[in-house]
């Protein structure tokens, strides 16, 4: 994606239309830009899940999303300018900055945003059970 021209990027516009991403905002994660920076960084790094998909588009900077594979082992996903990721509802994950300590990201949602993170263990939620079922089907 064209992060330098995200406001007018036709590819981003088409993704938002096709996936029904009707809400967005932009967050800058840096000690001089994010209120309660230290607390937020710790919260982002706590292993958690959401009941809705988490969609992030990196506009500047870089960082890592860590996700669990089907065997519960960590997979680190490097994210940099122009990258977009969709983490499905129910997947355990965490986020951290890299050595540059800076990222500016677009957060996208279907409908109104839901910010609630459920720290592990959170296995009783229907979203988690549905995700586990998806993994089991993919393994076959």
From TrEMBL:
A Gene Ontology cellular-component term = nucleus
- List localization entries: Cell membrane; Nucleus
How would you describe this protein's topology in the membrane?
Peripheral membrane protein
Protein name as catalogued: acireductone dioxygenase (Fe(2+)-requiring)
What coarse category fits the chief subcellular location reported for this protein? membrane
Keyword Calcium assigned to the entry: answer is: no
List its EC numbers.
1.13.11.54
Q: Which cofactor does it need?
A: Ni(2+); Fe(2+)
Q: Which UniProt keywords apply?
A: Amino-acid biosynthesis, Cytoplasm, Dioxygenase, Iron, Metal-binding, Methionine biosynthesis, Nickel, Nucleus, Oxidoreductase
GO molecular function per UniProt = acireductone dioxygenase [iron(II)-requiring] activity; metal ion binding
Q: Does the keyword Amino-acid biosynthesis apply?
A: yes
Q: Which domain of life is it from?
A: Eukaryota
Q: Name one GO biological process term.
A: L-methionine salvage from methylthioadenosine
One Pfam match, by short name?
A: ARD
Catalytic activity field: 1,2-dihydroxy-5-(methylsulfanyl)pent-1-en-3-one + O2 = 4-methylsulfanyl-2-oxobutanoate + formate + 2 H(+)
Q: Which residues form a coiled coil?
A: none
Fetch the Gene3D superfamilies from UniProt.
Jelly Rolls
